[in-house]
Design brief:
Elements lengths: L2 E4 L3 H13 L4 E5 L2 H10 L5 E5 L1 E2 L2 E2 L1 H6 L5 E6 L3 H4 L8 E4 L4 H14 L3 H6 L1 H11 L11 E6 L2 E6 L3 E7 L2 E6 L4 E4 L3 H7 L5 E3 L4 E4 L5 E4 L5 E4 L8 E3 L4 H8 L1
Parallel strand pairs: 1-2, 1-3, 3-6, 6-7
Antiparallel strand pairs: 4-5, 8-9, 10-11, 10-14, 11-12, 13-14, 15-16, 16-17
């Protein structure tokens, strides 16, 4: 079985590749843009399975199917909400909501393997699927990463831009944002939800306790047990540590 990943965020593509390796699914090619995908499909035998992000760096992935008759099954990987995702469950194999859960990934791959003998018939329906999808979702997708947070201070509300945020952290079952001017604000969400809502290029979850923006990193120090310690400009309440299992992906994220 041949598999490719089409994903504009290279760290996310590599992370998905590692998860697929654990399932003995070998990824032969990783593509990162509409133009690159169109060129590759025009000059190569189509794979059995595509893991496809919706919006790539140079446009919607639908544009690939406008130019090329794709002869592959598709599993969508997306950061979009439940309402939008319903469209992709027509005749595609499955969708996976980012950040991709390994159990969900295994189920999706299993669905594909079960349906593999029927691939020829399913391929004939792919063009119809994408036309239906485009009709249901008439407006172009934009990655609606969260840009601001509203916090309550007494009887007042304060709007805080993500540009002002030095880190997010959890403490005593609460989630807080810490600003560059050294203030903490309780917010009504979780780090798990924030991980889906924030721009993954700008923010990274380094541990169960912290999400940090790239712009806030002042220093990176080698720490015990193959971990890394992050020095932030003003946050001093606790050590900000990159957990051991996150170190490799963190290094990829910071480039």
């Amino acid at each position: 079985m041949t598999t490719i990943i089409i994903e504009d965020e290279k760290p996310a593509a590599r992370l998905l590749q590692r998860k697929l390796d654990k399932l003995n699914v070998k990824v032969g090619v990783m593509l990162h843009s509409v133009a690159e995908a169109i060129d590759w499909f025009s000059n190569n035998e189509h794979p059995d399975l595509i893991f496809l992000d919706i919006q790539l760096s140079d446009g919607l992935s639908f544009e690939i199917f406008d130019k090329i008759e794709i002869k592959s099954a598709v599993i969508f990987t997306t950061a979009y909400d439940e309402y939008a995702l319903r469209a992709f469950k027509l005749n595609s194999i499955d969708y996976l909501l980012k950040p991709i859960d390994e159990d969900d990934l295994e189920v999706a791959v299993s669905k594909f393997k079960v349906r593999l003998p029927k691939k020829e018939n399913e391929t004939q329906n792919l063009s119809l699927d994408f036309e239906q999808i485009k009709k249901m979702l008439s407006n172009p997708f934009e990655k609606n990463h969260k840009k601001r947070f509203t916090v309550k201070i007494g009887q007042h509300l304060k709007v805080i831009s993500t540009d002002e945020i030095e880190c997010f952290f959890s403490e005593n079952k609460g989630t807080y944002l810490h600003t560059f001017d050294n203030r903490n604000y309780l917010i009504e969400t979780t780090l798990e939800l924030l991980e889906q809502e924030l721009d993954p290029v700008a923010f990274y979850r380094i541990s169960r306790k912290f999400i940090i923006p790239l712009k806030a990193i002042k220093e990176i120090v080698v720490y015990s047990n193959s971990r890394l310690k992050i020095i932030l400009p003003s946050y001093k309440e606790d050590e900000v540590i990159v957990s051991r299992e996150k170190v490799a992906d963190f290094k990829t994220w910071i480039g």
